[in-house]
Design a protein that fits this description.
mainly alpha; two-stranded antiparallel ribbon
Length: 496
């Protein structure tokens, strides 16, 4: 074995010291892409050997050194400016100058861009799985409460009665779009920059499609269907190393999910305050001084996660704004925004799923509250309009009645005052009494997407089908990544 290098193999002695070395280093954040970098190194070395750029024996030595580096672990890496240089240094320490051939025909610019995408695919799969778990929890609880009436609100004021199922499915539908946005982002992440070198390509006869294949950048995407294999390689070498729009899109999708979660958390906190539901002790806490308290702390932190995600999106977009082509060191500070956001939002999604799955809804309190604030007023106006009274006239009549009460007597008095005749001259009393009942009011709203039990049951079936399809798509992504890892390992073993 050759003598250990005196310094980082990239910077050498001239640029390896000084007060700014720590400032330049990304080692504190790079552990996350340690495994990704090893995979990228292996794929690149296999391709170099296949193309005759390095010999099979040289490839074998380098790949054996990479295995040793992996077994030693991240903490055993030598000091370096980043994980890429540290791994290369560790390889050279083990096999001497042959290890320096590992970096032939590439730059850290295309290397890091590939590592980020490689790891981010896994994170996006987990984020999508967390949304699926939440959607499943929402559908399961909705199934239990198809006929549980509750107050619906606009402007935080009682508006119209609805059901717990209808309310929960409104969030299932919103989170489904968040799943879709994450899947769309995955499609743009799942493209390989490796082989672009610093930004201007390379004179070596590299096979970019081969490294993309070895790393699992394949044409089966999260949003369904397939694409031409050229879609798996970022064609323009300058764009390949300099663009981080895939990070911006990912963090944007996660931020949108966090905002969805924040609104849901706010609702549940309010419902808890009104006694409409009780969170499981696993998703609540108590006060350090007031022993009677049960606080919805987890949901408050879920709500706060939207601020973290929005800050990540703002920080990332500000970092990327106005950067000149091609690679700039500013990009080193872009990636942590993505890691922090995907971790925080995925965890918040999982916590929200657990909280809603284990909460107890107080059906009696909800039913009582459903009639508060004359919430059936719109239903009465609709009943009058369905009998031929102009809706605007019906609206005025019910508004007049609401000034004195919310029962049949108030409506009768308003009819005499406004129309000069009894209410039953326009609509049978039984129809009005039915419209005044919250459960009957809900049942009458059977238009597509409405809260009527029949409409809700249909939507539950549709949601289950969509969740199953999305789960299958995510499973396919995970299998593609796993199959690529296995195939790469098999290729590496051929050089032992």
């Amino acid at each position: 074995m050759d003598e250990e290098p005196a310094s980082d193999v990239v910077r050498r002695e001239r640029f390896s010291g000084g007060p700014a070395r720590g400032f330049l280093s990304s080692m504190s954040e790079d552990e996350r892409i340690f495994e990704a970098d090893l995979a990228v190194d292996r794929a690149h070395v296999v391709m170099l050997a296949e193309q005759g750029i390095v010999s099979d024996d040289e490839a074998g030595e380098i790949l054996a050194a990479l295995e040793a580096v992996e077994e030693a672990g991240y903490d055993a890496l030598p000091d370096g400016e980043d994980v890429h240089a540290a791994i290369e240094t560790a390889v050279i320490e083990r096999v001497g100058e042959i290890g320096g051939k590992m970096h032939t025909a590439r730059s850290r610019n295309d290397e890091v861009a590939t590592c980020i995408r490689y790891r981010l695919r896994e994170d996006l799969v987990e984020a999508m799985r967390s949304t699926l778990a939440l959607r499943e929890a929402l559908v399961e609880v909705a199934q239990e409460h198809v006929e549980t009436t509750m107050p619906g609100y606009t402007h935080l004021q009682p508006a119209q009665p609805t059901t717990v199922a209808h309310y929960l499915l409104s969030y299932e539908q919103a989170v489904a779009r968040d799943t879709e946005r994450l899947a769309d982002a995955y499609d743009r992440v799942d493209r390989c920059p490796l082989g672009a070198a610093a930004f201007a390509g390379t004179p070596f006869d590299v096979d970019r499609e081969r490294t993309a294949e070895l790393l699992g950048f394949e044409a089966v995407h999260a949003s369904g269907g397939s694409s031409d294999s050229s879609d798996d390689v970022l064609e323009n070498s300058m764009d390949a190393v300099s663009s981080r729009d895939f990070l911006l899109e990912t963090v944007g999708a996660l931020s949108n999910l966090a905002i969805t979660l924040s609104g849901f958390a706010e609702d549940l906190i309010g419902f808890s305050n009104r006694g409409y539901l009780e969170l499981s002790d696993d998703y609540a806490s108590t006060s350090s001084i007031m022993p009677q308290k049960k606080n919805p702390d987890t949901l408050e932190l879920v709500r706060a996660t939207a601020g973290d995600a929005s800050a990540g999106l703002n920080g990332l977009s500000t970092t990327l704004k106005g950067l000149p082509r091609a690679y700039n060191r500013d990009l080193q500070r872009a990636t942590p925004h993505a890691w922090e956001t995907v971790d925080a939002v995925s965890e918040a999604t999982e916590v929200t799923a657990g909280a809603i799955a284990t909460a107890d809804w107080d059906e009696a309190s909800l039913e009582a509250a459903a009639a508060e604030g004359f919430s059936t007023a719109t239903g009465v106006a609709d009943a009058l309009a369905m009998q031929g009274l102009p809706f605007r006239t019906a609206h005025e009549l019910v508004a007049l009645a609401s000034e004195t009460g919310s029962d049949y007597a108030a409506l009768e008095a308003a009819s005499e005052e406004l129309l000069g005749e009894p209410l039953d001259a326009h609509v049978p009393r039984e129809a009005i009494e039915t419209a005044l009942d919250p459960a009957e009011s809900v049942a009458s709203r059977d238009s597509r997407g409405g809260p009527a039990p029949a409409a809700v049951r249909e939507r539950i079936g549709t949601a289950r089908t969509a969740i199953a399809a999305d789960r299958e798509a995510v499973d396919d992504l995970e299998r593609t990544i796993a199959d690529a890892n296995a195939a790469l390992a098999e290729e590496v073993r051929a050089y032992e």
